[in-house]
Amino acid sequence: MEHTRTAQEGDLGSRIRALRIQHGLKQQDLASAEASTSYISLIESGKRVPSPPVLAAIAEKLGTSTTYLRTGRDDHPAEAARLKLAFAEIALRNGDNGEALQAFGELLTEQASLDPSTILRARIGQATALENTDRLEAAIPILDDLSRDPAIVVGSDDWCRVTVALCRCYRNAGDIALSIDIGERAVAQLDALGLDTTMDHVQLGVTLMGSYHMRGDLTRAQLLGERLLPAAEAQGSYGARGAVYWNAGLVASSRGRTSEAIALTERALAMMSEGDNARHIGILKLNCGSLLLETDPPEPARALEILESAQQSLVEVGNADDLSRCEIKLADAQKQLGHWDAAAAHAERALGLVGADSRVLSALARTYLAEICFLRGIPEDATQHLHAAARQLRHLQPSLDSAHTWRHLGDLWRRHGEPSEALKAYDMALTAVGVAKTRTPEAALTDQR
Asked: Are 409 and 427 in contact (CB under 8 A)?
């Protein structure tokens, strides 16, 4: 069947003829049961337009593509880009973040030859790989730029993925206030669409719950969880339901309801185990083991077993923070069991994973090293670790994590006969959760004058 000739196909015949001559072929070499030699001649002269099957057969004999014959543009680079994008996204799903990052980077150096959809997917993938490798300072500018891209429509999968990642990255980078602002605005945008609570609400809400929890807004976190759980249950997603139970467990733990927290975390772990997110399963095991160390009485032997299982998972798929937290909890379990050498080794590894920068995890690792030094009868080393931890904490923005670490530090000072240092640490812990200092009577009198 003949097709109507278009302006785009005007040079199709001349391209076929040029390639045929270039390959040293005759018209009869392109002929087939569907296209005689005379028909090939008519095609080359522009008097006939071949059907798609005939054109495909000609393209194969000429070693080219139908796209090139029709348009004069070689689609081999586009096909290569699609293959590279697919490879990068598979590597990302498999946890091979380094390979994914390299492939996305190589792809984005060829933006001039890429279509907008490929560029968008590559940039989102690049930001995801950067976040997964703890390079938040590099991931955030990409995500910020993507969040302002008019091609990403509110409520779309890409919009949800970018917004959740941006909220999470700012939180993990220490800017909890901005993380909460982004999350609340995004939830309001979804609400404005007039939809029932969707999976996008659940994904955003779970991230926002984590930010509320980190800032110490436990009531907001709990209320949001109560809103999200019915939607997650209705959607039937094990991952979504598990994530809500996960964060609800964190809130219960922060409120001191350890038994409830363990039950919620174990339920989250059971649901998450139905999926294939090995990192989340590893973190939930870490949370469960941590809670067992806080029960009354603690269960360090059981906790150690679960934490070692978490460590095996996180070595494969976790980031430096995940592994550092796990090492710190392993140090705690070994300390409670009286294995001080093993405890010190875990705490040292935790510190090595996050470095000496001013971060809550490095400060927390130092408090455990200090506690082990006290137990070993080396108070001078313990004191050095505590002062170093305090210096690091003073450079951090207030958060629930920093408050807990200040409290741990204060308890160690008090326990070892340094009440003035203990009071300073307790004062900083209160400040970190938003409890302002009481004004002195002298200051009040001065204001009245």
From this structure: no
Token pair 């002298």 in the structure block, residue: 442
Q: Describe the chain by its helix, strand, coil percentages, rounded to 5.
A: 75, 0, 25
**Residue 16 C-alpha from the chain's centroid:** 50
**Mean pLDDT calculated for residue range 246-264:** 89
* Number of domain units in the chain: 2
In which domain, by residue range, is 62 found? Answer: 7-74
Q: What single letter denotes the amino acid at residue 391?
A: R
CATH code at 411? 1.25.40
Question: Token digits for 253?
Answer: 């733990």
Residue 77 is predicted with a pLDDT of: 64
pLDDT (0 to 100) of residue 143: 96
User: From CA 395, how far away is CA 358, in angstroms rounded?
Assistant: 6
Rounded-to-integer distance, Cα 221 and Cα 207, Å:
10
Q: Cβ(412)–Cβ(386) under 8 Å?
A: yes
- Over residues 192-217, the pLDDT tens digits come to 988 777 788 888 999 999 999 888 89
202 in a domain, yes or no?
A: no
Question: Rounded to whole angstroms, how far apart are CA atoms 444 and 224?
Answer: 39
**Residue at 402 is within a domain:** yes
Tell me the C-alpha distance between 146 and 127, whole Å: 10
Who's near 445: CB < 8 A, 6+ residues apart? none
Please give the Cα distance from 201 to 214 (Å, whole number): 20
Q: Which of 17-26, 99-108, 192-201 has the highest mean pLDDT?
A: 99-108
For residue 246, how many other CB atoms are within 10 A of its CB?
A: 24
Query: Please, are residues 306 and 340 in contact by the beta-carbon 8 Å criterion?
Result: no
Task: Please say whether the beta carbons of 356 and 375 come within 8 A.
Answer: no
**Mean pLDDT rounded to a whole number for the chain:** 87
**CATH number, position 45:** 1.10.260.40
Give the distance from CA 185 to its chain's centroid.
Answer: 20
pLDDT of residue 326: 96
- Rounded Cα gap, residues 138 and 161, in angstroms: 17
Q: Is residue 377 included in any domain, yes or no? A: yes
| Residue finishing a domain among 74, 97, 114 | 74
**Which pLDDT belongs to residue 18?**
86
Q: Is the pLDDT of residue 426 over 50?
A: yes
Please tell me the distance from the alpha carbon of residue 402 to that of residue 2, in angstroms, as a whole number: 74
3-state secondary structure of 123: helix
Q: Answer whether residue 227 is part of any domain.
A: no
Q: How many residues does the chain have?
A: 449
